[in-house]
Amino acid sequence: MTRQTNLLFRGVFQGFRGRIFWTVTPLISLLALVLVFTTVYQAQHFLEHQLQERGASLVKGLADHSELPILTNQQDFINQLGDISTEAPEFVFAQVYRNNHSLLSHTGINSGKTTASLPPHIAQHFHDSRQPLIEKIITNEEPYYRFWVGVHSSAQYGDEALMLDDGQIPTDQEELIGYATLALSLSTVNNAKQAAVTSGVIIFIFFLLLCSVIVYYLSEKVTQPIQHLVNLSEAVTQGDLKQHFDFDRDDELGKLADAFNRMISAINVHNQELKDAHATLERRVDERTQELLRINASLTSEISDRKKAELSLELKSTELERSNKELDQFAYVASHDLKAPLRAIANLSAWIAEDLGEDVPAEIQNHITLLQGRVQRMEALINGVLEWSRVGRVKTEWNEVDVNKLLADIIDSMPVPPGFQINIVNPMPTLTTAPVRLSQVFANIISNAIKYSDKGALGQIDIDVEDKGLSYEFSLSDNGPGIAPEFHEKIFTIFQTLVPKDTLESTGVGLSLVKKIVEEQGGNIRLESDTGQGACFQFSWPKTACNLPNIEQTSSPVNQCEQKFTITYK
Question: 122 and 148 in contact (C-beta within 8 Å)?
Fold first, then answer.
């Protein structure tokens, strides 16, 4: 084989060139085959359609010229019509049958050998329909189309011309009096189809040769340089960094060669930099090792000190727990010791009032009433201070709470004035929380709103809730006298009241206790109010007990109540 033949063989059957050939060639060949078969099919369909149109036209013309010959029994009239083959080169034969199915006249090749009587299915067809009929006849000699049409009588001839073979005159001017048929050969269509197939084979062979030329060109211009570059790359992977790709072309392969050479140069530079960095790294590792040894010694000493601090913290925690227990015990004893004299004073004042009877002077009665009020205030103050001191120190039990029922219990336990309305605007949720703490917050805010209301029977409190994702935000709005902005912070301070205690009994502990409870639960409380515009307390309450101190959870969270309703207390 010559060098060109070897190159072509390798280009077709080996490596990247082979993949190109076996990828491109089938695609192009398939495209060529589809194109050829589509062209052959369309050409055959077009030629057959033209043949059918021409045959239908010719047989219709034959039928138009057959009416009078059928009626007058002219047996050789077809030959007198002229040469039909001049209008249709595919013409094979033509025949005309009488209405009694006998052959009247014929012409063309072997027309005399055709059936002398009308085929039964033709008569049946034209008995049921007046539509022309086309048959495709396949024979050993020559396939052809055979066109049939019925011949009907008309009024263009006199009555004397309408005499049929049996001597009867047709009574219906549209009566079927005969049949005309014409045969056209399919040889022209088949010859055109064969020519198209031959052309398609030639085109297919041309595309195969074109693919071989393309692969040969790629073998010379593309794949050989790429294979050389592959060999150089394999040498580089073996550690030979002295390779150089000599390829002087101003195209993409030339740019690839330049990029390969630059890559080798960059690798050599980077190798040198890596050697330098390796030496520097070894030096720094030695220095860092010495430093870590010093840090380790320092950490050993620090760990020892931390263990001592943890031990000390544990002792202090134990001491704090003991101190809290002592404080609780002290608070209980102090409250008992403080309440005992108060109860004695209350009893003595009651006995004095009984001894004096109804004749007690008004001033003395006023002093006794004032004394009893001060005793009640002192007892309430002691209870409030004790409860305030317990918030954050005493563990509270968490369980499932229906806030709707909680509010109903709180409102039922309060002395609500007649006509005073407490409205639950939206349904309250059911959540897992500390019921005692939440009840204290609602009870203090609602009782304050009732106590300080200046509307009497027209007083109103609206309770609402909004889901904030991780928490609920409750709001309690009233139509009371309102609070000036400069006192919004003061009311949350313990023992602070805005109304003199002699005017309206108050300990000044309630709102301070509310704020401490809310913040201990991880929420916050704020006030929106102004003088004469009522007050709106808003506080957030977490949905879960996560990361909250002093909590003993006994139930899992539940879904919100979806029922909507409004409760009004009057």
Answer: yes
164-172: which pairs have CB atoms within 8 A and are 24 or more residues apart? 164/71, 164/99, 165/73, 165/98, 165/99, 165/100, 166/100
Q: What is d(CA 115, CA 123) in angstroms, rounded to the nearest whole number?
A: 14
Terminal Cα-to-Cα distance of the chain (whole angstroms): 116
Whats the size of the chain, residue-wise? 570
Domain 67-185 has CATH 3.30.450.20: yes
What is the rounded CA–CA span in Å between residue 20 and residue 12?
8
Please give the structure tokens belonging to residue 544: 């879960």
Taking alpha carbons only, the member of 116, 88, 115, 91 closest to residue 102 is: 116
Exposure letters 485-502 (e unless 16+ CB within 10 A, then b): eeeeeebbebeebeeeee
Residue 555 token pair: 């139930």
Q: Choose the weakest-confidence range: 3-17, 137-151, 441-455, 502-516.
A: 3-17
The token duo for 395 is: 């563990």
- How do residues 470-499 score in pLDDT, each as one tens digit? 899 999 999 999 988 888 888 887 766 666
Location of structure tokens 């009004």? 568
pLDDT band at 390 (very low <50, low <70, confident <90, very high): low
Give CA separation, 209 vs 16, 197, 206, 302, 354, in Å: 19, 19, 5, 86, 134
Per-state percent for the chain, helix, strand, coil, to nearest 5: 55, 15, 30
- Residue 455: exposure state from Cβ atoms within 10 A (0-12, 13-18, ≥19): middle
Tokens of 279: 């030496």
For the domain 396-569, what is the CATH code? 3.30.565.10
pLDDT tier, 85 (very low <50, low <70, confident <90, very high otherwise): low
pLDDT digits (tens, 9 = 90+) for 19-43: 666 676 677 777 777 877 787 778 7
Question: For residues 282 and 279, what is the distance between their CA atoms, to the nearest angstrom?
Answer: 5
What pLDDT band is residue 100 in, cutting at 50, 70 and 90?
confident
> Is pLDDT of 170 > 60?
no
DSSP state of 562: -
- Residue 544: count other Cβ atoms within 10 Å of its Cβ: 17
**What is the distance of C-alpha 315 from the center of its chain?**
58
Task: Find the mean pLDDT for residues 460-474.
Answer: 93
85's CB contacts (< 8 A; 6+ apart) are 91
**Alpha-carbon distance 439 to 541, whole Å?**
12
Q: Could you check whether 67-185 and 396-569 share the same CATH topology? A: no
Identify whether the C-beta of residue 483 lies closer than 8 Å to the C-beta of residue 531.
yes
Are 566 and 423 a contacting pair, CB within 8 Å?
A: yes
Tokens 């189309």 belong to 145
* 267-276 own/partner pairs: CB under 8 Å, 24+ apart: 267/236, 267/241, 268/241, 271/241
How far, in Å, CA of 183 to CA of 316, rounded? 122
pLDDT of residue 333: 61
Give the start-to-end residue ranges of the domains of the chain: 67-185, 396-569
The model's confidence at residue 84, banded by pLDDT at 50, 70 and 90, is low
Query: Which pairing describes strands 471-478 and 525-529: parallel, antiparallel, or unpaired?
Result: unpaired
